[in-house]
Structures are given as structure tokens and as C-alpha cells.
Amino acid sequence: MLLSTRSKSLWGAFVIIGIGLGVSLSLFYSNQMVNGVHSTNFMGKQIGATECLRWAMESCGSTDDEALDRFQRERYHLVLNQVNSIKANSIGRARKILLDCGGNIASTVELFLETYPGGHEFLVHSFEMDASLAPYYAPYPDVILHNPVAVSNKDGSKVSYLETTWFPERGLRKKKDWMMGGGTLFAYEDEKNDTVTGGARNLARHIQVKSIDFSSWISKNINKEDYVIFKLDVEGAEYDILQKMVEDGTFQLIDKFYGECHFWHPTGWTASKRQELLKKIKTIGFTQTYWAGEERTYADFDALHPSQVPYDAPGSRGQVLTGCPPSPSGKLSVSIILQVGMNLKSANKLVATLQAHPTKVPMTLFVYGDFAETHPDVVKKWATRFTIGIRENQPYSNGIFEMLNINMTRQSVVSSEMRLNEVGLRVYYYLPVTVQERIKTVAENRNLRIIVPTVTFPPKDQTLTWENYYQHHDVARVPKALRLIDSELKKTGGILCLDSNNPDSVMISVFLLDYLVKKSQYQLTGLENCFSD
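The chain above was modelled as a monomer; its predicted structure follows.
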């Protein structure tokens, strides 16, 4: 449709307003970022600066790509100036920085933030050249994502060879599915010539991406005072990058060097040249420490996580406590523990009710690491009255945690320990979802004591049905629950576990304590007294 001169003028004014709005929103909500794509939250929707402009222009009925490109260039320079200003203002003040080169599906970001000592204190720059992987960084708004950007030894652009989108007929390796999320700057000729299957590695997406001289980037963005961890896992590009860093002397700005070296890509680097380069790096004081985010591990994981369990903690490392011995007088002993779920409201109801009971019975509360991170003040308050132990870092669907490999098990347990340590608590009791050799190994290495309840409510080995329990109203269920618990406790006493996720735990709690304190023959005791000398 042809526009009149007046209409064109009005349209132009709307576009200018749209550009101004996009720039304003970009600068107002922007995180510090260079060479990357930024997204932010505006009016409840996750949007980027480009989307801001496109939204404004589409409101005027236009998708002017030239204006869009111009805006992106202008925004890049504005944000670059902003970062340079921040860098200038930070000179003389030490920062902790992680340079995550080869970010992939944010596996390093997750592993670092969950388990690396002081990880939450670091400014994280993550570089990833596959734009389709950017959504994996959405849960980490404080991470500065440079995407799509390829780290290299030169500024410019390069062809990135990326895996094709998965589909059922996707190529197999030795009749087995291969991993997803791969990409490289170094492809074999058959892979370069095949944009349908992408050859043996399924590298069917060939996309031109911006490349940066990473050694130069370090020089421009890192101060001598900064403490910098450098992780490099870039599928063959590492040799050119490291050579340039040696030549430029930028290793002097690095404090710790993690990553992987890949010898199978067609990089042009011979085995002797690779070894010579690594020797040069070693002579200037650096040896690459193995890091594999997708495997949930780094070579010095255990060295960086010494046990925080005090030497005089009850029991012994890795001990599995399944009961409580009788008291000196011969009474059956009972120790009460609570497994706290992620729901704060239900957890608070149960804990507050038990805390208000006048007898002040000793109890141990087991919390997830994520619960302690989300509600640190609540956990600290509970710790003034109760002993605190750990569960895993988060709830897992039924049967899942038992099947995780040992690295994932270790990450879960260590992450939970760290979250409790961060609120000022040293923990030594661990209530796992189940007990297996893998879990016992992790607990022993962490110097933890494993707690296995003798009696649980609701019971694990006896199903409560509609017919025998749930058809009855609240107070009618109380005696049934108490009778069930007592019938199990009277056998040997032991460790009684209540679950905050079950609303009946609150309902029976006061009646249960009244019975145990006033009428039963049990000796109520703290968990520490259940360990034999």
C-alpha cells in the first residue's frame, strides 16, 4: 500500500519513538554484557533489546530489517561503552570471575554455582557459539552470556559446525544414540560437504558466527587484581587460543586453568606441537585441571571440599544408623526426626506445632539444600531449637535419585552441605531417600552419618488405603495413626520419622507427643544418643 507524505512522516515518527523506547528499555534493564545476546524481564515477559524494538515497530505495522540492524549496532556500542565504564570503575578492586568458554547447555554454570567453593561470589562470563542453546541460561540471570560467539585467536567471523536438531531417524553411532549439544569450528571434509546429515557427528548446521580474539578480550576486560578461573572446552579451538595467550602474556591475568584438550579434531595441530604448547604453558606455571560439566565433575572436586564435620560428632564416618539402643534403665529409646519438604507453609505448620509443645522433646530436622538456600532465615531460626541434618539438594521423583551416577549423587550431597554451611550450620547427619553402596560411598567420603528411620509415618511398607484410613474424618484418623506408629515402635523402639509433606503429621503431632511423654514406656532422646560408643 502506498503511503502519503504525511503518513510516511507519522510512520517515521513512530519508528523513532520505537527505537528510543527499545534503547531506553535496553539500557534501563540491561546487565553488563559484551559480544553477546541479552534478555531481560519486562512486564512479566522475557524479552531482549531486539524484541523491544521489533515489538515497537510491529505496533506501527513495520519490520524494517535495516532499522533493526542499525539499532543492534548502536546498542552494541552503547553496552560496550557501559562495560568499559564498569571496568574502569573496578580498577584496583579485586573481583572473582569465571570465564566459561564452551558453555554448552550451562552445565559448567550449574556445577560451578552449585558446588564450587564461593561460586555465588563470582561474576560469570559464559561463551557459547550455538544460539539454540541460549534458553538453558535463562535460569541464571546473573550470568553474562556471550552467544552466539566463538572464542578464537582472531576477531572476525567463522563457520561453526553444529549438531542437527534431533529427530527419530537422526544418525546413530554404532547403532546407539550419540550425545546432543555438540559443535566445533573444525570439521572434516565430509562433514563440511553434508548439510543434511552432517556426517558421523551429525554436524548438519553450518552457521557463520562472530569470533573473538579471546586473549585480547581478557586483556581488555580483566584487571590484574581480579581472581580469575578460566575454563576452556571448545572442541579443538583451544590450541590456537592457548598459543595466542602464551604469546600475549595473558596467562598472567589467570589464576586457575580448567578444561579439556581435544586431539581428534582436524585442527592442523600435530601431537608434537600440542605437547610443545602444553610444556610452554607449564613453564609459566599452569597445568590444565580436568573439568567436565556434563559429567558433573572436576579433578580437584574432593580436594576443594574437605569435610566440615567436627571431629567430636557422634558416630563414625559413613556409619548407617538404623535404630536406637535401649536406655540404661532398659526402656526402649525413641528419637524423633522430621523430613522437611520444599513447601514452606506445610513445613512451618509442623515445626511450629512441635516447637510449641511444652515438653521440648529433642528432635532432628532434615532439610533439602534448596530449602536452606531459599529460606535461610527459617532454617537458622529452627537451628536454635532443633538439630539440623541434610537431605539431598532437591526432591527427586520417586526412584530417580537411586539411579543417578556417583558424580550426580556427590554433587547433590555436597551442594546440600554447602547450602547449610552458608547459613552457618555444620551438618553431620544425612537422611537419604534410600541406602545403596553408591550413596554410602559418598557419605563416607563426606564424613557423614547416614540415618535410616525405624518407623515412618506415613509408613513405607504398609499402604494406607481409603478403606482402612482415609475415609475417616480428621480426628477419627488420629487414633488409627497413633496405633499404627505404636505397633511398630513397641518392637524395638528406634528412630521415628514424620513427613512435613503429609498434612496428617501436623494433625497427630500433639497427640503423639502427649502419648510418648505422658503414657508410653519409651525413653525419648536426641539422635546423638542413638550412636553406640
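The two ends are 90 Å apart (CA to CA).
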